[in-house]
Specification:
This protein has 404 residues and is of the alpha/beta class. It has two domains: 4-124, Rossmann fold (3-Layer(aba) Sandwich), CATH 3.40.50.2300; 136-403, P-loop containing nucleotide triphosphate hydrolases (Rossmann fold), CATH 3.40.50. The chain is 44% helix and 15% strand. It has 17 helices and 13 strands. The strands form two sheets. Strands 8-9-7-10-6-11-12-13 form an eight-stranded mixed β-sheet, sandwiched between helices. Strands 2-1-3-4-5 form a five-stranded parallel β-sheet, sandwiched between helices. Helix 15 crosses helix 17 (388-403). The radius of gyration is 22 Å and the shape is globular. The structure holds adenosine-5'-triphosphate (ATP) and magnesium ion. Magnesium ion binds at residues 149-150, 174, 179.
């Protein structure tokens, strides 16, 4: 049976447009042309998601959202606000009323479809208590700042989500002004800050997931707090607990770590199954990587969980790969070329290179990295509905294997 969606709009043309877009994606669409009618329709048709306009005579979309949140039958329903207002204040109003996502009109039909898919996945794809997942945690780390840690984490998380159909959390552990959500163009309506006051004992999956921000790739982001005083309340113990809880519910957790060995960073590293140590081909970065590897040795992290990623954040005259490998006495696993246009473009659009509509060489590199870091049981079997990203990555992997 198709998923039921209730679309609410007082403008018949808009309503038709939303209806057609959602029908095209295979949903069963019901409509209402004002707030009170929507509340009645919701009781009748028990929708699994509601898309609502804001400006409507009588009861506006925010009020409707508030009322839906107060009714037990619709309290948990994903609600998408669709409106011609595109100011930040308006968006905040929508989120404060309890909306889960916000899109401005005129909308791109494919974007609306993608966002709806993500919102629905959030409620349906997560396993219940009985079906625990053995998730893999990948930490992205460097003691030196500004050399692409967050960029790599965001690309990896969105790539894994596209590759395996969701089930990925990008956890920003840069607790003072982390950029993960910003990089993916997600409004900071919920963050770690909203969890910061909760005692560890009360942090269950439902509470944690309430503050997740869904991204169109299918990944979720646990964003850095808005205010430094909230960051101070987040302890290593809390981080460890959150990661342990999420690991049973998500296939992958990607950690964007700060450039220090604070208690919360260590909690992230301790929980990691694999650590990507990022370095740029310059002396200061090499020094930072040496220090980090020393600390990893002291902490007795197995050497085989550490991968070296050489990121060319500048154009030329960097240290040679061989020189770096000799100094560290370790092999570099991945080299990311200098690609200013791709990254600046991505930052401005809030979309990582891996999700470019036209596949690029850089995108392919991140896709391969995501595949390389995927769980063995994933690599063994294609996903039920292989995405375009999965298909082209698998084709490259097969080609390389054939050459060997
Ligand atoms: N290979 C690359 N080529 C060109 N620019 C890059 C490359 N990798 C990263 N950058 C750019 O370098 C800057 C820093 O990247 P990013 O924010 O990911 O690093 P970071 O280590 O997380 O920084 P911070 O210390 O702020 O946490 C960004 O503007 C990013 O777009
Ligand atoms: Mg960063």
């Amino acid at each position: 049976m198709a998923t039921r969606i209730l679309a609410v709009d007082d403008d018949p043309v808009n309503l038709k447009l939303v209806q057609a877009t959602l029908k095209q994606a295979g949903y069963d669409v019901f409509t209402a042309s004002n707030g009170p009618e929507a509340l009645n329709r919701a009781d009748e048709v028990l929708p699994e998601l509601i898309v609502s306009d804001v400006e409507m005579p009588g009861m506006n979309g925010y009020e409707l959202t508030r009322q839906l949140r107060q009714k037990t039958s619709t309290a948990q329903l994903p609600i998408m606000i669709l409106t011609s207002h595109d100011t930040v204040q308006e968006k905040i109003k929508g989120f404060e009323a309890g909306a889960d996502d916000y899109m401005t009109k005129p909308f791109e039909p494919t974007e609306l479809q993608a966002r709806i898919r993500v919102l629905l996945r959030r409620v349906t794809a997560l396993p219940g208590e009985s079906q625990k997942i053995k998730g893999k945690t990948i930490a992205v780390f460097s003691l030196r700042g500004g050399i692409g840690t967050s960029t790599i984490a965001a690309n990896l998380a969105t790539g894994l989500a596209q590759m395996w159909g969701g089930g990925v959390g990008l956890i920003d552990l840069v607790l003072t002004s982390g950029q993960s959500a910003l990089m993916l163009n997600l409004p900071l309506r919920k963050t770690w800050g909203d969890l910061s006051r909760a005692p560890v004992g009360e942090m269950d999956a439902a509470l944690i997931e309430q503050v997740f921000l869904p991204h169109a790739s299918g990944a979720f982001v646990l964003a850095s707090p808005n205010r430094p005083e909230q960051a101070e309340l987040i302890t290593g113990e809390k981080v460890s607990h959150v990661l342990t809880v999420l690991k049973e519910r998500y296939h992958y957790l990607v950690l964007d770590l700060p450039h220090d060995f604070s208690a919360t960073t260590l909690a992230g590293l301790d929980n990691a199954d694999e650590i990507l140590l990022v370095l740029a081909p310059e002396v200061a970065s090499l020094h930072a990587a040496t220090c980090a590897l020393d600390v990893f040795d002291t902490l007795k992290y197995p050497r085989n969980i550490i991968r070296l990623v050489l990121n060319w954040t500048f154009e030329r005259r960097g240290l040679a790969r061989k020189e770096i490998e000799d100094a560290l006495q370790r092999m570099i696993d991945v080299v990311i070329p200098f690609a200013p246009d791709a990254f600046v473009h991505a930052i401005n659009r809030g979309a990582p290179p891996i999700l470019e509509t036209q596949p690029t060489a850089l995108g392919a590199l991140f896709e391969d990295l995501a595949y390389f870091l995927s769980k063995p049981d994933h690599q063994k079997q294609p996903p039920a509905k292989p995405s375009a990203l999965y298909q082209r990555t698998a084709a490259r992997v097969a080609q390389r294997q054939a050459k060997k």
